[in-house]
Amino acid sequence: MSDHQVSIRPRKRPPLDILLMGGCGEIGMNLTLYGHNGRWIAVDCGMMIHQDLPDSPLQVPDGQALKDRNITPEALIITHGHEDHLGAVVWLWPRWGCPIWASPLAAGLLTHRFAQHGLDTSAIRVFEPGEAFEQGEFDIRPLPVTHSIPESAALLISAGRHRILHTGDWKLDPAPLLGPPINEAQFRALGAIDLVVGDSTNAMQPGHSASEAEVLSALQEAIAPLTGRVVISSFASNLARIHSAGLIARATGRRLVLAGRAMQRMVHIAKSCGYLEELPTIVPLKDAGYLPANEVLLMATGSQGEPGAALARLAHNRMRDLELEEGDTVIFSSRVIPGNEQPIAALVNALKQRNITVMDEHNHPDLHASGHPAQDELRTFYHWIKPRHLLPVHGTEAHQCAHLALAQQLGIDGEHTPSDGDWLRWTGDTLEQADRLTLSPRLINQQRDVRRDTRHGLRVVISVLGDQSGWSRVGRTIVDPPPGVAIDEEALSDWLDDQLPALGAVSLRELRTLLSDQLTHWLANRRQRAGRLYLDVVDVSA
Asked: Which of 18-32, 134-148, 258-272 has the lowest mean pLDDT?
């Protein structure tokens, strides 16, 4: 009698699709999509600034490429509040219309931006770091990490039997100035991680990134003996650095001044979320010129050489309320982002020609700390979570290759250094190239003609979406009439919905011209004496 043997073939689990739409082979404009059983989520939706082009336009990910493949995410999850992770949401989200999950601080920033563009803020949902939530095929658990902005999170994403960790931006800072240090025990307790999709920004740097507490000490030591005005330039969203400036101002007998709308807005929103409570009273920029030079500590936007930012206006003596003089000092508390070398060098040269002292990463590297992990931090973190496989993202190809080499030294599998447009498929054991999307640059002109003096006129702000079928209105139309004038917003919105498709405008400029004429006639026919019309049409197509 023969023995019958039964072999059981293990069930093959459905793969996890990973679509890299930004942040791979470059720094900035981060957007990653995850798909399972035909359903998708998006993680982050950032932009970057093209200073090598006229008017320094924003570049956002190519949403049309997703539409062409019939891919629409069912949710967008934001890991933290930096512009390279959420700055493109207002441009891509109108095509998706999905829930947006973010921490309280990032949600506050998005709410402000949505209100500016007339978009529906009810789509923004708040998660607390550490609290899991479900979205379609996916279970998502945000895990708090340390970065240069509070409430940053890595995402533990589970889909079917797949468990991956999307790190977002992070570092191991034992003494962060805002928020707690990273919880080692929490990450050690995660268990088996199939795949880590990891930040490569600092993977070429040996050692350990500096702590924000060390930067605070170095800044205070550098500023204490100075007798002229001091300008510290950093990213507007670097709340840790703004907090340091406040502490230093108080310790050195200076008054804190903020220059740049983005930084002023960031401080306002951060305070509404309970941060920066120790910040001293901020002196308005219009009053800073009346203070003695040795009492001024000014935080300014524009550390990457942006031509319209506060630091550029100070360097070229175009700031109406304050003029820098010989004996003043400008501190670049930042690192040069690849591609911005030339505009930053031009800015430094303009300052030095006016005999203004410049401190930057070349002569004072201790005045800035990266928010990303250097090699020792990567080794420590991967020892905690013990991933089987690495997909290096967030960086140039050189950064990604360095990250992959380090992981392989630790016995972590990995063979891909993806580029934007790569469609990869995780089987549970290997990453395979499934497809590649051809992406087109999507540039947004920041220099739109926005007239500000509407005291004697009617201002109307309309967000529109353009595609092959024409233009359509999205979100809420903002109507700001002069005193004593009432505009029926519902009737105006209905009229716009009828008019926009019929205008046949090819470009945004043509649309604005035609619509302005039509709207002027509409107001006249209704005998609305609203004065001059200020029409602002915002294209949210991407």
From this structure: 258-272
